[in-house]
């Protein structure tokens, strides 16, 4: 180790202190792991804080809980009874299902018998005495009818169930089923044993279904449920990790080995990245109380750009060992500051996931930089002659002293890029960029929802009131408009509690109408049916004391449990004291959506379109990230202007030119700019800034040019290959990096142009 590179006493103490700090981080990480600290696997944490009211957040939680840990399977075969039993057995044995919905078609006769006189179908309420008599006769003399001439001679409960609880599900051969044009689909649904994001449970469930399909290849099976999408995403991530991830890792390792030919140098390049992750991981986990796996995966990749610091250090050490290391530190420090500025602007965004990721990356970059600054000077690997040969050959890639054609071409491309952006740039806030599920699975889920006529919970009306009777009356008032929309084909279906639990006023009116029918129509029915006259008094006595059906009583019945998600009981975490209920809405066209907005005009009704709201949040977030990116660029331009004066354009040309060319190409191919394109642009900005800084700090140094080239190439392998990912978000990120990093590297020769002079030979090895 020469005097020019020997660390001083203060640096030795700092290196020891850094080692102690990393040891503390390692102990903290071990403590977090041993306590089982929470890990979050949801990609939806990328979505912004909506700052909704407490009641609306409560509604979102209820809907999420109602759909998240459930699944539905539709099975079709010529021998459904045996196959349904076999499938249930396999699912039970897999320990992936807690319970099946055996009470899916539970008939609520016994549960609602006491309330039957208050539950009157609209058709019977409007019928005359003759119609009541005719219905009573049909009930009595229809074969197989379970009519009770004493308790319910007119079949009131059957009529109410047929109209109010009607749906596509029927019992066929004792099994719940739905029918389409091709035949019957038999339903198997239930509750999962764990979170749908539990990978072990996912694997057990998917394996059980695969074994069932192998055993019964003739059976058709449709799947619906978050667990299947989560399993597909996990499988795709695993597959892409083995292909893209390992491929990029092998490519980077091969690239660095060809360049340096020393295992010790490869280890020194990876050491800062490992230390950066060790420093960032426990501190971020501790600060946020949880850690999203997306933060770990994506953030660790971003910390990977910290290999730039080690590359510049080792290239300078290998190619110019006699030069003092003090010449490197200003450029490395400026590179760190510029990267921190580019990423810390994300702390201003409303996305918990991005704020966590920004913190993770910032801490990781600081940890990697400190490792390079404090530890790597102690390692002096022996250089390999191949490194010098490669650097010498690469250094010949320079612009001629006078190259008006090249500059003219660059200017023309710049003008074309500006025109392309100004005329064709568009944005895309489609939520599908957050959905990595294969098209086949999405199609299956949509088909299941259509067959079951089930709500998707993507749209709903939230209705509030101070009292239960007022709440039910408001639901009934909205029902008329919703029924018209459904009848006209603008709305596929809707569901609310007042369909099962009429308001007290309606129940009182129903009871009075039934008493009227018992006075006027029941005597005629008894006479025509030849029933004993004593039956009249017995039947009328049943109407003397009829309990009122309440929401709580309905939800406590097996048939009412499916409506639990529609009822928002007052809880301590909800600031409002009003009672609230949901009206879930099915697929709706533009006419229905306009009607929903009109229905939500009163202050006690709120219309929520979850997809539209999230898309709007993504749009706002995209705009905020773009603004932060612009602010970062402007701030860095000021810093570089002060630092480099007239040479500041050399620093800014690679990163800003790369941003311009990337956005222009995306515009040229009509690719709407998404949040993930902007995240990729942040990465391009960080690496491009490093390239600009070091090409300006050491314009004629083959070591700097080699390090810049290795940095761009390794980053292309690490991120550019993501352009081939089937996950939309990763594809957008990878495509942006592929274009941007290649552009940044191609612009460095322009930033180095015209800098060669005899006085600058100190940069050469």
Tell me about this structure.
The structure is a single chain. By secondary structure, this protein is an alpha+beta fold. It is built from 28 helices and 13 strands. Strands 2, 3, 4, 5, 6 and 7 form a six-stranded antiparallel β-sheet that branches. Strands 9, 10, 11, 12 and 13 form a five-stranded antiparallel β-sheet that branches. Helix 15 crosses helix 27.
SSE layout and pairing:
Elements: H1 9-34, E1 39-40, H2 54-68, E2 70-76, H3 80-93, E3 97-100, H4 109-112, H5 122-125, H6 129-141, H7 156-164, E4 170-172, E5 175-180, E6 183-192, H8 199-215, E7 220-224, H9 226-260, H10 263-288, E8 291-292, H11 293-303, H12 307-319, H13 329-344, H14 352-374, H15 385-395, H16 404-424, H17 439-452, E9 459-465, H18 468-487, E10 494-495, H19 504-520, H20 522-529, H21 534-541, H22 551-555, E11 567-568, E12 579-585, H23 590-599, E13 605-609, H24 610-644, H25 648-668, H26 675-697, H27 702-719, H28 728-752
Parallel strand pairs: 1-8
Antiparallel strand pairs: 2-6, 2-7, 3-6, 4-5, 5-6, 9-12, 9-13, 10-12, 11-12
Helix pairs in contact: 1-10, 3-8, 6-20, 8-9, 9-27, 10-12, 10-14, 11-14, 12-27, 13-14, 13-26, 15-27, 16-25, 24-25, 24-26, 25-26, 25-28, 26-27, 26-28, 27-28
């Amino acid at each position: 180790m020469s005097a020019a590179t020997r660390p001083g006493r203060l640096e030795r103490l700092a290196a020891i202190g850094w080692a102690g700090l990393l040891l503390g981080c390692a102990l903290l990480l071990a403590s977090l792991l041993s306590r089982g600290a929470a890990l979050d696997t949801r990609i939806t944490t990328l979505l912004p804080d909506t700052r909704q009211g407490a009641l609306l957040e409560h509604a979102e939680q209820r809907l999420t809980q109602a759909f998240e840990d459930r699944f539905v399977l539709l099975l079709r075969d010529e021998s459904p009874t045996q196959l349904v039993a076999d499938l249930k057995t396999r699912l039970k044995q897999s320990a992936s299902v807690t319970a099946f919905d055996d009470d899916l078609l539970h008939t609520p006769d016994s549960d609602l018998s006491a309330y039957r006189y208050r539950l009157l179908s609209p058709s019977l309420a409007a019928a005359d005495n003759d119609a009541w008599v005719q219905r009573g006769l049909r009930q009595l003399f229809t074969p197989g009818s379970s009519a009770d001439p004493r308790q319910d001679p007119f079949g009131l409960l059957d009529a109410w169930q047929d109209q109010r609880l009607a749906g596509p599900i029927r019992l066929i051969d004792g099994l719940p089923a739905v029918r389409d044009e091709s035949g019957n689909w038999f339903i198997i649904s239930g509750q999962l044993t764990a979170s749908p994001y539990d990978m072990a449970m996912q694997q057990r469930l998917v394996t059980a279904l695969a074994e069932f399909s192998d055993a019964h290849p003739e059976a058709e099976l449709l799947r619906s449920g978050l667990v299947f999408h989560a399993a597909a995403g996990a499988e795709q991530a695993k597959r892409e990790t083995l292909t893209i991830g390992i491929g990029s890792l092998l490519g980077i390792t091969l690239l660095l080995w060809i360049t340096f030919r020393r295992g010790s140098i490869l280890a020194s390049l990876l050491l800062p990245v490992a230390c950066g992750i060790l420093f960032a991981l426990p501190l971020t986990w501790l600060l946020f109380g949880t850690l999203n796996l997306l933060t770990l995966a994506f953030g660790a990749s971003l910390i990977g750009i910290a290999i730039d610091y080690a590359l510049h250090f080792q290239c300078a050490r290998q190619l110019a060992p006699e030069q003092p290391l003090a010449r490197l530190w200003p450029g490395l420090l400026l590179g760190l500051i510029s990267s921190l500025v580019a990423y810390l602007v994300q702390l201003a965004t409303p996305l918990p996931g991005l704020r966590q990721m920004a913190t993770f990356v910032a801490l990781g970059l600081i940890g990697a930089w400190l490792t390079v600054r404090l530890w790597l000077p102690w390692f002096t690997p022996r250089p390999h002659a191949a490194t010098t040969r490669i650097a010498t050959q690469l250094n010949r890639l320079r612009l001629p002293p006078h190259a008006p054609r090249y500059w003219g071409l660059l200017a023309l491309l710049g003008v074309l890029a500006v025109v392309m952006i100004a005329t064709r740039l568009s944005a895309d806030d489609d939520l599908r960029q957050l959905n990595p599920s294969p098209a086949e699975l999405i199609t299956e889920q949509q088909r299941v929802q259509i067959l079951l006529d089930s709500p998707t919970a993507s749209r709903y009306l939230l209705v509030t009131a101070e009292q239960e009777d007022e709440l039910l009356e408001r639901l009934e008032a909205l029902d008329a408009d919703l029924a018209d929309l459904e009848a006209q084909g603008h709305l596929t279906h809707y569901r609310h509690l007042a369909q099962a639990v009429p308001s007290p006023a309606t129940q009182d009116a129903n009871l009075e109408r039934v008493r009227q029918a018992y006075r006027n129509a029941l005597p005629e029915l008894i006479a025509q049916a030849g029933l004993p006259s004593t039956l009249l008094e017995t039947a009328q006595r049943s109407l003397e004391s009829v309990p009122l059906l309440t929401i709580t009583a309905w939800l406590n019945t097996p048939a009412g449990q499916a409506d639990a998600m529609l009822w928002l009981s007052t809880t301590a975490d909800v600031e409002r004291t009003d009672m609230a209920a949901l009206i879930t809405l099915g697929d709706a066209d533009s006419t229905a959506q306009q009607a929903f907005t009109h229905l939500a005009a009163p202050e006690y009704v709120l219309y929520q379109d979850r997809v539209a709201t999230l898309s709007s949040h993504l749009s706002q977030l995209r705009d905020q990230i773009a603004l932060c990116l612009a602010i970062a660029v402007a701030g860095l331009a000021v810093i570089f202007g002060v630092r480099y004066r007239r040479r500041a354009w050399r620093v800014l040309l690679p990163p800003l030119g790369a941003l311009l060319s990337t956005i222009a190409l995306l515009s040229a191919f009509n690719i709407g700019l998404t949040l993930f394109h902007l995240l990729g642009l942040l990465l391009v900005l960080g690496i491009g800034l490093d390239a600009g800084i070091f090409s300006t700090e050491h314009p004629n140094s083959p070591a700097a040019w080699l390090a810049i080239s290795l940095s761009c190439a390794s980053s292309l392998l690490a991120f550019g290959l993501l352009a081939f990912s089937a996950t939309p978000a990763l594809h957008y990120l990878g495509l942006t990096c592929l274009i941007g990093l290649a552009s940044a590297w191609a612009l460095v020769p322009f930033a180095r142009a015209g800098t060669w002079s005899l006085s600058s030979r100190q940069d050469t090895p």
